[in-house]
Each structure stands twice: as structure tokens, then as C-alpha cells.
Amino acid sequence: MDEPLIILNFKTYREVEGARAMELARICERVASETGITIAVCPPAIELSRIASEVEIPVLSQHADISRSDPRTGSVTIPGIKATGAVGTLINHSERRLNLADIEDLVRGCREAGLVSIVCTNNVSTSLAAALTGPDYIAMEPPELIGGDISVTSADPGIVKGTVVGISRVSPEVKVLTGAGVKTGEDVRVALELGTVGVLLASGVVKASDPGKALISLCSGISK
Amino acid sequence: MDEPLIILNFKTYREVEGARAMELARICERVASETGITIAVCPPAIELSRIASEVEIPVLSQHADISRSDPRTGSVTIPGIKATGAVGTLINHSERRLNLADIEDLVRGCREAGLVSIVCTNNVSTSLAAALTGPDYIAMEPPELIGGDISVTSADPGIVKGTVVGISRVSPEVKVLTGAGVKTGEDVRVALELGTVGVLLASGVVKASDPGKALISLCSGISK
Amino acid sequence: MDEPLIILNFKTYREVEGARAMELARICERVASETGITIAVCPPAIELSRIASEVEIPVLSQHADISRSDPRTGSVTIPGIKATGAVGTLINHSERRLNLADIEDLVRGCREAGLVSIVCTNNVSTSLAAALTGPDYIAMEPPELIGGDISVTSADPGIVKGTVVGISRVSPEVKVLTGAGVKTGEDVRVALELGTVGVLLASGVVKASDPGKALISLCSGISK
Amino acid sequence: MDEPLIILNFKTYREVEGARAMELARICERVASETGITIAVCPPAIELSRIASEVEIPVLSQHADISRSDPRTGSVTIPGIKATGAVGTLINHSERRLNLADIEDLVRGCREAGLVSIVCTNNVSTSLAAALTGPDYIAMEPPELIGGDISVTSADPGIVKGTVVGISRVSPEVKVLTGAGVKTGEDVRVALELGTVGVLLASGVVKASDPGKALISLCSGISK
């Protein structure tokens, strides 16, 4: 995925049930095309294959359970994600936390499958720890700011900076995304200024009265 | 769903990754059409919407996490399942067990959403307990027989009979399905003879060298 | 355990850490002796053996993980509880919910070990379901009332009555306890009047400025 | 705790139920006294307080759930462990894995409470990740070797060495313990030679016909 990038986590909001997930993915596709900025989407699990097979922008799974094709009813596997045409997955989102051994196994599974891995973390210390498992990205999201109106870049720029600097020391090939509370183009601009390569957000677009307009506003924080 | 019925759980076998899930669903659709027997399919979570939107046979989710449209990254919600066009969901499969409060909440959520609920259980006692939460079906599957070559109808017909009789006493409107190890038309015939209204199976068809042939063989146990 | 009975769940409040757990157990022992009423205690897991080996009143575990003596680091086993001298265990407390198969297995494990089993539930439907696994007691505690100041007997006497009547139909040998929000002797009196054989409570005594006085007040609701 | 050290995880084996836990702790105490070598014990959760209050050797919890004194029925808290007189806890044992955020929170909780934290891990990559959360010790135990007869020091000395070297680079103040399959004095000797400061073991002593003799044999691998 080209950077800087905006990753939109659809979560399981009412606004993205059924056909509305595809509609939002199409809006993202259109804004990405108009602005030239990378916008990736994480639809609800049960919409993944359908959306991955139809849109031209990068599609990511919200979660993975296991790295292999084992029969596990109700689970999401790395080879299954790969086979949908999705390009990667979030791992360890704060609403779906995983144990450390599984995080490491899933990151390795992504690498072997040629999928992008984005490990979500909650503070500087867990970000550095997760970075040592070797994912492509760390998305740092203090849980108290998720779904709120204040971006982590305003509430506590120090922990974003601390994560970027810390990871550059222990695992320099891992890139950092800013999560939690991102709402405006200014939030995106500051996120990039702090050394992260993009943002991961949800409610700011999914719950917006005009998601396309909200996305364009976010894109305005990225100078092309 | 008309009864008797055959429910095919695709699990997350390698054989049903990506486009192969749709191929297997199409085979089920064809055999259902040819035989006139109800065949429902449970594709992997990430293939659910795509398959539900394309095939004419009943499609079920393998699992549900929550009954409402709450934002929960990586989860499967009842309203989300409904919105895909799927007609119901398995709940509490032995590979994805749920706590009792969640089983009851999900069964109620299915009822309110107009979805079919099938609660999987592991023995007579848990079957009767689960029946009291009011699902449409109980699918009794002794875990030691799942994925094996011996049907529960051969290994222990008494526990199938015990489940049917017990449920008819405590919650007579709940119907029973036979699970675990079903492989042949004879297994299906005995399952119906024991008072269950159909079967829930996975490997017997998914791993078969010719899934269509395996399905036709199963259907032969049902007299039309 | 003789009935009516008062069961005090110590939870893991600061007030019951270390030696304070024993002090509270001693207070319960004294009030039980003075009033002639059965008072059972559920100390924190890590205090169980110490308290069970020293007090004369019934001691229960707050939780059990597995029914057998399998090596499982950090878990609580039924044989392990038995060996401490405790007389039983809570199962499926709302703060430590278990899947249905485990509830059933633990209830059976208690029966085989000669331990009292108390399954905690959250509404009428789950109470009836859990009763069919055959425990000695069901303790019905609507989670929204736990830790609060309004007893379930005041907030919703209908669900207590509904649980008692429902269980008497489906599994008449199972007795019912009233949980959630019990604070006063009057709460206890109403709990017994509604057909339950006792109460399960925590904060009303553990957080009281004078736990002995709080217990005596509760006992006043029981006529001897 | 003085090093080198031997940590004995009692798990929940039948051999350590009830009074037998104290007997084994006394044997450890005697051998520690006779040999002058540090032997720490991790009794079953429900025996923790009793043993911590009676023996003179270091006692550790097998597990912790939360870092604060929140009311959580059936859980083990850091302040609760501290109040028993135990000196620390295992965290994230492979039989009780925790999510990354909880590992980090518990390690910090131990530090603030003055407790020793030992995070168990399953390979080099998770060891380095866990080390960045700042525990006192990492105990690396490949799960496939746990409970077996071949020590990790024989089966794969490279991953022990890799863990020691890797941690010395990213988090040099964190010490490493060798786990999984340790049985003999020679295993202990090699564990120390590879740069770890001690061993964590269970079945080799708990299941031994003569645990005292097994311990003395282990101690023979440590030159005083």
C-alpha cells in the first residue's frame, strides 16, 4: 500500500450492515481515485469477500483467528483472507485482543502469505513489544480515545512520538499508524508530522452524515 | 427451512477458501434442486455475504458474537447476518463455544430478527439446557465424534434418542438435528428414524473427493 | 448446608486482601454462631485453602475452571477445591462466565466429588437452562443490579418468582438463591417469601463500615 | 531472589492437591536449606496464601488476572498476591495465555507493587517482545516440550541462546530462565552455561517418585 495512507475500519456499526458496506467502500474508492491518496477499507468480516472481489482499493480484514487452514467453525484464517483478494488484516484490535503467541503467529502467517499485517496496540510499551514480532505496521490506539472526539495527536502527541522513536530503535522496518479519535484533516497532518505514515479510524467517517465529505476533509491533511 | 434438512458446515477447511466456497455452495444448490431436499450451507464467515447474495438455497452463518449492532471490530452481529440475506446462524459450535448468557441473548436476537437459530451442544444434558433458551433447533454433536468416521447414530443412538425425548418434554417446540460423524445415506436415515429432523455435517462432504456425489448419497437416506 | 442460608461472596475487593479475608471470615463465623443462621463464605481464590482450613462455617470457592486434576497452570480444579476442605463452589458468576459445556461438566464434577454446586445466572431463561444441568442451587443475579443499592427483590420481584416457579417445573430438586443488590434484612425476608432458600451477596457486607452489623441486619430477615 | 534459581511450578497436578502442596513446599524448603540454592515455588492458586504464610522460601503465584483491587469474582489480583506474602507471579504461562495489553499491565502492576514478574513465552520472537514490557524475567518454554522428557537445552539450545542474546540487545536488564522439559542436573548446568539465570520446571519434580531426590539432582547442576 502506498503511503501516506488512510485506513477506514468499518467495525460492525449499523451504518455498514449489508449493502451499506459496499456503498461505503465505493465512496472510499471514489475519494481515493479523486484525491490520489491511498484509502484502505476494513469491512465487517461477513462482507469481506464480497467487497474484496468488487472494489479496486486495498481491502483488509478486521481480524484473524488462526494462521493456517485448520477447520475451526466461525473463525477467520490467514489463507482464507488471502483467498478473498484482501491484501492484509488488522491484528489485535482493542475490541478483539489476542494473546501474544497468537499475535506473533498471525504476523508470521501474514508474512508467509504475502499479506500486510497491522498490529493494533494501546500504549508505547505494547507498541514496542508488538513491533518485535515483525509486522508491517503498528497502529497505536489508546483505548480511552477510541470512538471519541479528541484525536490522540491532540490529547497526547507524546505517546505517538514516543512510539515512533521507540520503534525506530528496536525494529526500524516497522511503520507506525496513528489511531483513535482521528476526525479532521488537521489530525491527519499532525499524525504525519509526528512521524507516522497514516491513520486508522472508524467513527469519524462511518458515523458521519456525509462520509465522502468526511474522507475528503481527512485527505486535505495530506499534501500531494 | 423445509424438513428433513441437511446442513453443511463448510468450517474453514482449505477446500472452501475463496472461490471454492462458492463452487461448493453451487454444488449444494444443484443437488438440492435435483433431489428436492433442503440443503442449507454455512460458509466461512468472510464468504457469507457473497454466497448469501448469489445462491438460492438457505445460507447460515457459522457463528454470531453479539445480538446488536454495536461497534465491535472483528465480530459477527445478528443484524449484520440478517442484512447479508442469510436466514440464520449456528450458535455455540464446539469449535466456538459461548457462555450461557450469550447463547440465550443470541437466540433471542435471532427470534427478534426473524433468523433461524441452531444451538450446537455436546451431550444430552447440555442439549436440554440449551433447548430452554428457545432456539429453533438443537444440533447435538459429541465432540469426540466430530470429524470422525463413525456417526453418532451408530456410536451412541441412545444419546440422540435421549435428546429427542428429553427435549420433547421440556421444550417441545424445539427440533433436533443429528451432528458429528454423519457420512452416509444410512446415517441420515437412522438420524430421522431416531426422531431428529435432519443432520449437520462438515468433513463428510467438504473433504470428499466428489462432494456432489457425497451429498446425493446423503440425500438417498431421505425418502421423498 | 442448612437453609435458609446467606452466602457472602468476598470477590477481590481491597477489603479482603491478605489477612483481612480471614478477619471477615471470622466475623461471619461469629454471627453464624450467635444467630444460628447458616452463613457461607466465598473468599478470594488465593485465600481459599487457608480459610477453609481454619473456620467452622461452610467455605465455597468463587469459581472453578476444570472438573479433573489435569495440569493447568493458574487454574482451579474441582479435586483441588475438595482437598482444601471447602464444601462447594460458585460456577459461572457474571464476572467469570463459562461456556455451557463447561458449566455442565463442572456441575457433574461437583456431584461426583460431593461438593455443592451453585450456578449463577442472569435472567429467568438462563436460570431454567442452567437448572437442567442439575446443580444444587441456581443463584439468579441480573448483572445490572450487581453491586448496586436496589435488591432484585424490589427492582423486579417477578423475575425471582418466575425463576422459582419455572425451575420447580423443569428441575424441581434445584433450589434457588436470590442475588444482586441484597442489602437489608427486609431484602432477605422478601427473598425467602418469594420462594428462594437464601441470598448471595457481596458489597452489602464486604464494603460495609461494620460488616458484622450488616450481617446481623441481614439475619434479622430470617425468622428462627 | 538470589540467582541461579530453580522455580518449581506445581501446576494443578493431583500430586499437589490439598495438604500435599504444603508437603512439597516443605521438601523444597529443606533442599534449599541444605544446598544453599534458591528454590522458589508456585503452588496452585487456592493454596497460595496458606503456603506463602508458612514457608521460608520464595513463593510465587502461577497466574494473575488483573493489576488492581477491582471486584472480579474468581480472579487473582496483584494486590491480593502481594497481601499473601508471595514475592511475585508467573504471567502468561502457556496454559493460561494473556493478551498483550494485559501482560504489559500486569508487569507494570508487579513493578509498582514490588513483586517479581516472570513472563512466560513460547519462542525467541515472543520472548523479545515480552521483554520490552519490562518484566524481571522471561521464561522461554516451547509448548511442544512442556511436560516432556527432553529439555529445551538439548532439543534446541539455539533458541535459548537466541533468546539470551536477543534480550541482551533490546532490554538488557531482563533476565532469562530456561523452561520446558528440564529434568536433570545436566539440564540445569547447560541452562546456566547458555546464559540463563535458572530454570522453571514442573513435572520433573512434581511427578517424581521422590521429589526431594529429583530436586537435589537438579541442584547438582549448579556449582556453588
Task: Explain what you see.
Four copies of one chain form a homotetramer. Chain A is an alpha/beta fold. Helix content of chain A is 41%, strand content 16%. In chain A, strands 2-1-8-7-6-5-4-3 form an eight-stranded parallel beta sheet. In chain A, strand 7, helix 8 and strand 8 form a beta-alpha-beta unit. In chain A, helix 1 packs parallel to helix 10 and helix 8 runs parallel beside helix 10. Chains C and D meet through helix 1, helix 2 and helix 3 of C and helix 1, helix 2 and helix 3 of D.
Largest inter-chain contact set: A-B, 47 and 47 residues
What does the largest sheet of chain A look like?
8 strands, parallel
Helix percentage range of chain A: 40-55%
Structural class of chain A: alpha/beta
Low-confidence stretches of chain A: none
* Strand order in the largest sheet of chain A: 2-1-8-7-6-5-4-3
Helical run tally of chain A: 10
- Classify the fold: give the CATH topology of chain A: TIM Barrel
In terms of DSSP E residues, the strand content of chain A is: 15-25%
Instruction: Give me the oligomer status.
Output: homotetramer
Number of strands of chain A: 8
Written as H for each helix and E for each strand, in order along the chain, the element string of chain A is EHEHEHEHEHEHHEHEHH
